[in-house]
Amino acid sequence: MDPKFKNTIVAQAGETFTIEADYFGKPLPELRWLKDGEEINKSTPRTDVKNTLTHTTLTIRDCTRVDGGHFVLSLTNVDGTTSVPVNVKVLDRPGSPDGPLKVKAVSGEKCNLHWNAPLNDGGASVSHYIVEKRETSRVTWTGVDALVEALSCKAAKLTPGREYIFRVCAVNKFGVGEFLESEPFIAQNPFQTPSAPSTPKASATTEDSVMLTWERPESDGGSEIDGYVLEKRDKDGVRWTKCNKRRLNDLRYRCTGLTEGRYYQFRVSAENTAGVGAPSEASDYIKVCHTSYPPGPPTNLKVTDHSRSTVSLSWSKSIYDGGAPITGFVVEMKEAADDEWITCTANTEETKDTIKGLRQNAEYNFRVRATNANGVGEPVDLPGSVVAADRLEHPEVELDPALRKLVSVRACSTLCLNVAIKGRPEPEVQWSKEGGPLSERAQTEVTGSSTLLMIENVNRNDTGKYVLTVSNCKGSKSAFINVRVLDTPSAPTNLQVKDVRRDSVFISWEAPLIDGGAVISHYAVEKREEARKVFTSVCSNCTRNLYKIDNLQEGCFYYFRVLAVNEFGSGQAAETVEPVKVSEVPLPPGKITQSDVTSDSVQLSWEKPDHDGGSKITCYIVEMQAKGHDKWRTCSESKTLETVINGLTKGMEYFFRVSAVNEKGRSEPKLLLTPVTVKDTSAQPVIDLLSTTFSVKAGNDLRIDVPFKGAPQPTVVWKKDGNILKETCRVNVCTSVMSSQIIIKDATKIDVGLYQITVTNSAGTASAEIHVNVFEKPGQPCDFTVEEVSADFVALIWQPPSDGGSPILGYHIECKDQSSILWTKLNRGLVTENRFKVTSIEEGLIYEFRVYAENIVGAGPRSNASEPVAARDPCDPPHNLTVSNITNSSVSLSWEKPQYDGGAKITSFIVERKELPDSCWLKCNFTNLLDTFLEVTGLTEGEEYDFRVLAKNAAELFSAPSETTGPVTVQHDVEPPKIIVEDKFRQVLVVKVGDLLRIDADISGRPNPTVLWSKNSRAIGTKGRVEITATKTHTSLIIRESVRKDSGQYILTLQSSAGTASVAITCRVLDRPGPPAGPLQASGLTAEKLTLSWGPPHETGGAEIMHYIVEKFEFRKSTEKVWAVGTHNTDKTELKVTGLTSGVEYVFVVRSINKVGISEASPETDPFAAVDREEEPRFDISTDMKKTLHVKEGGAFTFTVPFTGKPVPCVTWEKADVDLRIRGLINTTNSVTSITVEKVTRDDTGKYIVKLQNGVGNASLTLSVRVFHVPQVTSTTRICCSLKNSTRRGSSE
């Protein structure tokens, strides 16, 4: 089967997937396809099974998610059964959620829905759920929530008394699944609405509001009261309207937004889960009114500007508005000499004004009054007088701090320089650029307070210093701004090409004049051939101003250019104007040879220069110098490599030198090292032969070149094997002045032999012998055999053939499938040894192989093909052979199957024994043994034996023997069970929820003990998340995706006839804690703080609660979502929350934290409005304070009275027919008021009344004083009352 089927096959719904496999067996096995343990129904139209003798295919078309699962291909014949599993996952819409769909917490308007996740998620996780509802009397479904991520949903807006059905479906990335429906149910409350509260009572009336209070209803209807609804009705109206937008939780409420002077009635209703109850009786009509006064004077009146005809004033609003909003201001003026004030601005709502139409140089006084609905208030006068005259100011330029620094702007963007200016009269503005005129793209704008210079699409040329000059009649002022345009650099300068060589040039340059506002980091050097249009990079990171360009093509014409690079990119390029040819003068000629000298001439020859400089050599110049002379003169110009110089003087010595010339010039001269003496010379022939042996491949040409010299010119004779060499169409001899050459075309074996050359002149004879060898291809390798075979490789071996006259370089191996006619080469390189291991084979196929040799001539003939061999592995030996039990006549053995069966099913095992020390191996079983254990009986007590096991597969191949057991003595062997665990299991084993819980233990004992696992006295087996494994030496308990209930004590027990052993392991699974216990309690609520308390969580998650997180959320609007405001941490179950905003409603939740993580949030609190609690004013005094105070005439007394109330009440002191503000000294704070009367007389006897009043109510306290006349004695009495528990005391002075 293809290896891809070992992994899970994934298919999209609607696609077709195919599972195929090759199979074999003798006799032909019976084939079955199973799915999830049941045989596949082949009659369905979407399922197709096709079988051949060796291949089977299962095809399922238009697959759906039900087609996914565990497929098994089962093969069965008389020899056994084998099966191959294949897992298929079909990606489809999810199935319906797992039911039932439960409806809980039903009321008249809402309910809660609960369901379970789908059993089949369609191969992709469920992203969300869709919940819908319908009335049983209707057929259409309406949406409840189209994006539910949890397994529950709250459905609201139900109609009480109606019968409903809900349904829910799952959604994954492949679509919407089937729906799960609930049972019908009726939306009705299990309780009634509350009874009516008491009639609302009014207090603390203002011009647009009234404070109302009421009592709770007698009955709450069986459900806790959630809040109250307050309604109002105008005296002239008939409709009741709500006063509160949000539910009221308190028994009082200030109704605002009322119309002053109107009469209103109020009523209140209670609300619980069942709804709003009956309203209370309506209150009496209440008139909305409030007393107010004209406002106080404005403050901070001052002159902001003046001219010859205007004066500008500004002021601040009045501190006291008289109890009514300030509607405007009245501005009045008069000339300094006049007494009558004139209104110049009757009503302005702003706190500033400009008075126009004044006489130039006249002196004026000004004042301002505030107005409200009750009239015009007191004025505030402007200190001093104002003269109506123009104000002159020197021009000023105010540069922004950013403009005082270097202004940087990117190229192609817009430069904007906005500068604030001032001056009286308005100054003239001029912009300029230092060192040159402004750009034609520059635009300027001028207003009364600023000027703007704007240049669009700036470039590097706009860099510089910009000067702003402002001037008027009082003078002038200048300022400059440095601007840097961040751009790429300009082109480098002074680009020069130097030192041109045949394959390289040197170029140099200087830095650009403009660096683009950034440091030049490096240069880019490029080149292009004259025939091409595109430059190619030579160096992209050159840091110097000099670079050598190598690897140029000799003789070609090139252009070169250089670009400077800064952080903004590559700048403009500097390019060579003319193309540069890459060439140079040639090298000097090679070796100069003097070939012949006469009485008046000499013949010279030379070799070409090693390099022509990249340009063709046009000629050679030969110069000579007579010995004893200093001057060289040209004696010959030749286009060939030799020349004859005539006209020489016999007996003279001459020096010669030769120079090569090309279009670049003349090379350095090459000097003939020895001088030439002009005379007749004769010399015996000399043969200069470098090698005496020549080899050639058969069929190739052979060229033998023999140099010689002699004077006069010698003759040449060639012989082969002692006979004169005959020239034919294949064999030719060419002789020149200095060498003789034999050429043999298409050499064969007949050309092998001894060749002799003889050179003769009048001065003598010289000869040389040359051996010629012709190589052929090697012969055919012999004794080619297969040495070893497996499923992965085949080892080959052979004997070398004849080498054909040249050593064998290596061998080539070929193979083919027995059913094919095409041979395939196996080795890429030559095989140098006489053996080869073939690894590129396919298991089960039958192969043939052949080999051939290769030498310097070529490849020889192929060997005969090897015998066909099948690529199959030998079976591995059984392993882990152990002795499980010993008695006085038997030994029980067990082993494990071979790790590899050789490609065929294991059909039997053979157990062998050997009696120690010198016996042979004997077979123990004479029947077909398929089990991996055997009890060997009939043994002799007290004797020692050794055992081993062999395996046999269906291909009739035997494995190698297993490792032996070692000496085993036949006698009774008993060992008590024993358990060994690691130290970490002797302590509490701690894991996190969702992690793998694993307990391992090593076990031993004879006979093999029985392994039992238990928890809390209940046995545990492999099921679901729990997996138990046990071998003879080891056992393990594995729990996947552990949960909290997996905590506890696990006991491992071993039992055998030798005894019992057990060990206990304690495990603890840690989880995130549960939410804090509720409900959350709030106390001490004010406009800025409250105290929040809660209970510890019922479930700690197995770990200590480290601290709590308190989160507060602010309600913006009732129709908007909740917006998070902040969090607080605490390690206690109480927190004082501060920093609240007055008038804002808050909701709080609390989370628990242990070392595993954060819990879910606790249930939300009801919204709390951050407002101060209103309290009626009351006195906080002791009973002694109410007693009559006795004071001596002429003395003094003080009453100090503490009080409370929110808002802080107004305090007044009264006494019949006496203004205590004049008679006494009154001092009042937010919590204490006091009055002190000095030099008392009889008239100060009487009752002193202190009154408290705020928006909630009022209170009064009467204090009595009695004055005694005591002649000539002065006394002072002070009365202090601070707290309820304080005492009243008096002192005399």
Helix-residue proportion? under 10%
Structural class, by secondary structure, is mainly beta
How much beta, percentage-wise?
over 45%
Mean pLDDT: 85
Low-confidence stretches: 1118-1123, 1272-1293
Rg over alpha carbons: 59 Å
Instruction: Categorize the overall geometry.
Output: flat
The biggest beta sheet reads: 6 strands, antiparallel
Count of helix runs = 2
Query: In total, how many beta strands?
Result: 104
Distance between the termini: 120 Å
Keywords: Immunoglobulin domain, Repeat
Domain Ig-like: 3-89, 395-484, 685-773, 977-1066, 1177-1266
Protein name: Titin
Domain Fibronectin type-III: 97-190, 196-291, 297-391, 491-585, 588-681, 780-874, 877-973, 1076-1173
